[in-house]
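stuck on this:

***
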Amino acid sequence: MTNPLKKSEFINYIQGLKSFQDPKIDLEQYQTDAIATADLFFHIAFELNDLSDNLIVDLGAGTGNFTVAAVLLGCPKVISVDIDSNALKILKENVLELEITDKIHLIQADLREKDITNEILDFKEEHFDGNSKIVVVSNPPFGVHNKGADIVFLSQAFKFADIIYSIHNSDKKTQEYLAKKIEKFGGVVTERATLYLILKKTYKFHSKKVKRIKTDVYRILNKKKS
């Protein structure tokens, strides 16, 4: 896949997106910064070639950084899933501003309670051929305020995705825990790469204006779908 945008241009687009107006701490709502978004999606698109001709599912889409990123780099259709109607409203404003609404399908769902598998599989059958894959890209809640929230996202993804990209805390305990869960779900990790996130002061309890956090991005193949 050839690169339609310079990385600097891509970053400018992402930085220009509207973010959360009233972020909810119980949902661990943070906007993934533009540089981390660029690093991740340029890797997915141009080094691993997992973007072109595939259906991307932005699981926990928030205000749409990953959704817009996928479209900017050539993804034909993106399904954006989030629990929060306010976040999805801002996402709609962002894609409307960029005139890419025809490429986006929104699902509002609480993944703890609703199985979105059939809606996603039906959408893929309608818009893609049999050679296309479903690729999930997710920066889930890390489970700081709701233990196990990240595993809820992973378990949903394994129901329909061929390939899963998921961001998690980078520490030995988390790595060992995820290795067991991923194996149990029927996945194999083909890559675990470091990604640094820049978190701006979002909540009152944050003491620093900016914090740099080391995370791991997992690329997981779903053996049940292969």
